[in-house]
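User: I've been trying to design a sequence by hand for this structure and keep getting stuck. Would you show me what you'd pick, starting by listing the structure so we're on the same page?

Assistant: Good idea, let's start from the same input. This is the structure you sent:
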């Protein structure tokens, strides 16, 4: 064993001869000029030891009482209590209170560091903390690539970003040039305003912008937002959610294709296919544009706006151009205005506006005069209500219900009250009652049972005997009328303070007197289904929501360039390559796809695509290939589903031909959400295309496909391979 010890090796204080001797001993000069890199330099060491038995080819450097071992390479400085320097490999191991500094911005501390001057890759372990002016990363192990200016951890880590909070994840990557973090798996951001959970999370430390992909939630004290694609400004607390987007505000659930939210104002707006559920009052509001102010307990919705009061036996549907819901949860009020309609199996209505109080059960059908010239509805088309065979109109209609029993109690019609029912046994014959005011009572089946017409009552009845034979037409005027109905027909009636009245045979009844003044039979307007509520609406054109692009995973941290650097550090002797010893080993599973070269096989499921055998040679020039074309009925695709629910996958396939296509990873369920996609423009030459991506554990299987195949496309395929990448 050769043991050489040199003390007080401060190289800037020694004379030229000493510097030359120590330089030769430590071996700063590379033995291979073909692989020459900047050499690791020892700036200071308290003690230098050569221990060939334990550290062959290395110099052991130890601190003294004055200061730590100081190492320099390419503008970076490292300090440690102890270091082992392998001069020939241009490699160093540092132990104890290790600090690495790069310029004035990057500072890393840990218990242990390995660093290669050839790869310029550092591996740190033991309470690793990396800081820059924007944030702090801490992890048990961390990789720092000085060439790409990236840091990476794969076994859990934490990032602290001043006001933006603390982020933890299983896998994290920091792009120092763009100040971007990319987190994968079990991502959690916590700050004083909110908590964000996601599977894929891109975060920019200088702006505080966060981009969420995969199942994600943003939770605050007053709301919880879910989406599978979204953006959040952690500084301003605003953002938007796409793809299965949902916001929970106390007892309100807001869903839509696109949701914008401002948590500082407790405000949210939604676009396209909106559904707002009131869990307390058992109501649902639908439409295609909505605004919700949680602090003001208000909701505005338009574009096919529909309010549904959910009842166990028979729900109530209300539609209008616009619907406003206001009030505290225990006193919610619905205002539907402009061409408002209401539908229930036993009662329907229509008016300019509808007011409904969910607490009191009072519903008002109101005609609000509008100033627009020629608005016939506001001047002539009075509020109208239908109940079984009866049509009721008036200037204002009040309907009173019992929310507990879900039954209609009573009806009030104010000013110009008119009730009409058609006599089904005669042509153009109508029973009619008119008066200043109408009071109605309903039976347990929600059918109109009793009606009182108060003041200035007029009536026309088609009187029939027990055999339903017409006796005559009864026309009279009185102070008031009380009517009893049975199964929609008039059972009996009583007049009070009658002024005049006659029962006249139909043959002698003047045709001009068959209708009371103000008679207006409007059966053609009566909604008979929920769909009828929208019959007067103009065609609906929904805006196209662009939003965020699909998640695109970055290339692997240990990419081909880095692996080549590591290979060069081994100088042809992989078993002696110290730069490779802490690099995760990656292996690939067997091909998960069946019939990888026979696309006409039933193993490949096809939609709007047909597959045939061609005479074209494959890329290896030893066999023929299949080709696919679109049928033209829709965008075609060909795919296989594999029994994998999560992991990192690589799909590769050789293709050539004419047209454009995509290779994709999708959820294999009814949603078919796209995880990753690679657009391809085909050429006449064979080329292997590769798509690599991570699938979160969302419960669905993985669908691997070639998509967007059009009728004029002709695509030759060979060598489809899907593998799972396993890191050890």
């Amino acid at each position: 064993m050769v043991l050489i010890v040199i003390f007080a090796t401060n190289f800037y204080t020694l004379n030229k001869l000493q510097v030359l001797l120590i330089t030769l001993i430590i071996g700063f000069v590379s033995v291979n000029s073909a692989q020459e890199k900047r050499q690791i330099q020892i700036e200071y060491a308290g003690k230098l030891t050569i221990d060939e038995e334990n550290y062959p080819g290395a110099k052991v450097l130890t601190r003294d009482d004055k200061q730590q071992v100081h190492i320099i390479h390419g503008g970076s400085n490292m300090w440690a209590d102890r270091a082992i320097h392998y001069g020939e490999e241009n490699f160093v191991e540092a132990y104890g209170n290790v600090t690495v500094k790069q310029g004035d911005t990057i500072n890393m501390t840990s218990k242990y560091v390995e660093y290669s001057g050839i790869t310029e890759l550092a591996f740190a372990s033991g309470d690793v903390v990396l800081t820059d002016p924007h944030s702090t990363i801490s992890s048990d192990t961390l990789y720092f690539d000085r060439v790409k200016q990236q840091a990476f951890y794969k076994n859990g880590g934490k990032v602290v970003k001043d006001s933006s909070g603390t982020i933890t994840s299983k896998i994290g990557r920091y792009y120092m040039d763009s100040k971007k973090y990319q987190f994968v798996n079990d991502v959690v951001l916590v700050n004083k305003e909110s908590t964000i959970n996601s599977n894929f999370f891109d975060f920019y430390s200088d702006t505080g912008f966060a981009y969420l992909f995969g199942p994600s939630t943003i939770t605050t004290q007053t709301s919880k937002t879910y989406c599978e694609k979204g953006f959040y400004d952690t500084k301003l607390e605003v953002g938007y959610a796409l793809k299965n987007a949902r916001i929970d505000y106390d007892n309100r659930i807001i869903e839509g294709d696109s949701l914008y939210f401002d948590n500082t104002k407790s405000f949210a707006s939604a676009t396209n296919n909106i559904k707002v559920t009131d869990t307390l009052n058992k109501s649902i509001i639908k439409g295609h544009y909505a605004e919700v102010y949680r602090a003001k307990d208000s909701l505005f919705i338009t574009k096919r706006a529909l309010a549904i009061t959910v009842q166990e036996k028979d729900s109530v549907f209300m539609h209008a151009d616009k619907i406003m819901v206001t009030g505290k949860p225990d006193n919610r009020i619905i205002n539907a205005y402009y061409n408002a309609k209401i539908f229930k199996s036993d009662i329907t209505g229509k008016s300019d506006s509808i007011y409904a109080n969910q607490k009191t059960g009072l519903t008002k059908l109101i005609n609000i005069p509008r100033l627009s010239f020629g608005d016939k509805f506001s001047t002539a088309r009075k509020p109208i209500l239908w109940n079984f065979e009866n049509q009721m109109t008036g200037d204002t209609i009040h309907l009173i219900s019992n929310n507990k029993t879900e039954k209609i109690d009573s009806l009030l019609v104010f000013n110009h009250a008119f009730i009409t029912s058609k006599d089904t046994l005669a042509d153009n014959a109508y029973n009619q009652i008119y008066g200043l005011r109408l009071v109605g009572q309903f039976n347990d089946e929600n059918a109109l049972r009793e009606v009182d017409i108060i003041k200035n009552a007029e009536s026309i009845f088609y009187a029939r005997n027990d055999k339903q034979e017409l006796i005559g037409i009864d026309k009279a005027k009185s102070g008031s009328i009380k009517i009893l109905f049975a199964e929609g027909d008039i059972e009996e009636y009583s007049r009070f303070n009658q002024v005049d009245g006659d029962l006249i045979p139909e043959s002698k009844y003047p045709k001009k007197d068959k209708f009371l003044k103000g008679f207006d039979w409007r059966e053609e307007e009566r909604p008979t289904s929920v769909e009828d509520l929208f019959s007067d609406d103009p065609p609906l054109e929904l805006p196209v929501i662009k939003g965020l692009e699909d998640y695109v995973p970055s290339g692997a941290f240990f990419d081909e360039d880095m692996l080549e650097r590591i290979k060069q550090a081994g100088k042809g002797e992989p078993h002696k390559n110290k730069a490779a010893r802490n690099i995760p080993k990656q292996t690939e599973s067997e091909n998960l796809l069946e019939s990888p070269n026979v696309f006409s096989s039933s193993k490949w499921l096809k939609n709007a695509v047909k597959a045939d055998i061609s005479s074209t040679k494959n890329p290896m020039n030893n066999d023929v290939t299949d080709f696919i074309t679109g049928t033209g009925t829709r965008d075609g695709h060909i795919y296989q589903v594999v029994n994998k629910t999560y992991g990192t996958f690589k799909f590769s396939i050789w293709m050539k031909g004419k047209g454009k296509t995509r290779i994709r990873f999708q959820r294999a369920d009814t949603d078919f959400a796209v995880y990753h996609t690679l657009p391809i423009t085909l050429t006449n030459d064979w080329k292997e295309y590769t798509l690599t991506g991570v699938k979160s554990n969302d419960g669905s299987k993985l669908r691997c496909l070639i998509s967007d195949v059009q009728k004029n496309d002709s695509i030759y395929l060979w060598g489809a391979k899907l593998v799972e990448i396993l890191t050890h």
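That's my pick for every position. To get oriented when you compare it with your attempt: The longest helix spans residues 16-26. DSSP finds three helices and 46 strands in the chain.
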